[in-house]
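#random but structural
TW: two for the price of one
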Amino acid sequence: GAMNSMGTFLLIEMGKFNKLLKRMKSTLNEIQRAIKGLVVMSSDLEGMYQAFLFQKVPGLWGAVAPLSLKPLGSWVKDLIARVEFVKSWIANGPPPSFWMSAFFFPQGFMTAALQTYARRHEIAIDTHMSVI
C-alpha cells in the first residue's frame, strides 16, 4: 500500500541524517589523510581543523545539519541521541511521544501528524487548521 504521511516524513528525515553522517565520515577521513600529509589540506579542511580547535561544529557539517549553537562535544552527543531516536522509531514503530527538536524540520512533522489525523477522521485538512 501507499506510505502514510508519517512514514514519508520519517523517510525524508532519515535521508537528511544519512547525508549529514556521510558528510561527517568523508570529511573526517579527508582530514586524517591531510594531517598525515597524504593529501593537500584544502581551505575547507583547514576550516574544519580550526573549528575542532575551538570546539565548534565545522561549517562543512553545519551546512547539512540542523541549526544549533552548541559546542562540538554537546552537538555530537545531541546528534547521537537524535539518530538513536530515529533508529528506535524505525525499529519499534512510532513512539508514544515525539522529541520535536530531534527533527531537521519539525514543521514537516506537524504537517504529517495533521494529515494523518485528517485522514483517520475523514476530515478535510483545511477545515481544522487554525493560526495560533
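TW: number two ↓
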Amino acid sequence: DRLELLNMSNSAWLVIASLLQQGPVEGAPYCMSGRAILSVWWFFMMILIAMYTANLAAFLTVTRMRVGISSVEDLLYQNKLKWGTVASTSPQTLLNGSNK
C-alpha cells in the first residue's frame, strides 16, 4: 500500500492538493509547515531537473559546433559572411590603416 503512494501521478496530486490547501488527502501534510517543506522540495526538484536538461542539451550541442572565426584575419579572408563597420568608428579606422 505504501508503494502505491510513490508513483508520479500520486505525487503530483499530493503536491497540488497541498498547494491549494484542499481537504484531507491521503499522505498530504496537514500543517502549513509540512506543506511549505513539500512545496520547497517539489520546486527544488523541478529546478534540478531543468538544470540537468539544460546542461545535457548544452553538452550535446557543443560537440557539433565548430570554430569558424577566431580572429580579425579569419574574418577578412572568408567569403561566407558579409561584414562591415560603422562609419567614423575605431574599427573602421583600424581596418583602413592596416596593410592587408
